[in-house]
Amino acid sequence: IFSVPQPYIIDPNTKTDGEEFEAYNIRRWGSSGWTNGLKRNGRKVGANFNNWVTWPNTLKAHQLIAYVNDPDRQVANKPSTSECNAAIFDAMYE
Q1: Cβ burial 45-62 (10 Å sphere, 16+ → b, else e)
Q2: Residue 51 to residues 4, 5, 54, 55, 82: CA-CA distances in angstroms?
């Protein structure tokens, strides 16, 4: 079996530059309460979400990772998808 991970965008209607976290959650789900469990579980593995002030539009992040990891792009020390994801996560949420 061969599988290729595909990017997933929770809400493709998120504004291009993202939206203020609480305002987005109120508009979309009525509150940000649903994120409490996510944050609690994230803390157990070092994902503290200390700076989650914006609900991001992740399209550009997905495009960046696809570009960096393009097999036809020959560069020394090409980062892995996991390294790219970690860098973007830290920049966005930590």
Answers
A1: eebebeebebbbbbeebe
A2: 31, 27, 8, 11, 20
As a whole-number percent, the residues of the chain with pLDDT over 90 amount to: 44
How confident is the model over 15-28, as pLDDT tens digits? 999 999 999 999 99
R_g of the chain computed on alpha carbons: 15
Q: Would the CA dihedral through 5, 76, 91, 40 be positive or negative? A: positive
Phi then psi for residue 54, to 5 deg, are: -125, 135
β-partners of residue 45 are: none
Q: 93, 51 in Cβ contact below 8 A?
A: yes
Residue 35 CB coordination number (10 Å): 16
Q: Residue 11 and residue 33: Cα distance in Å, rounded? A: 18
- pTM, entire model: 0.71
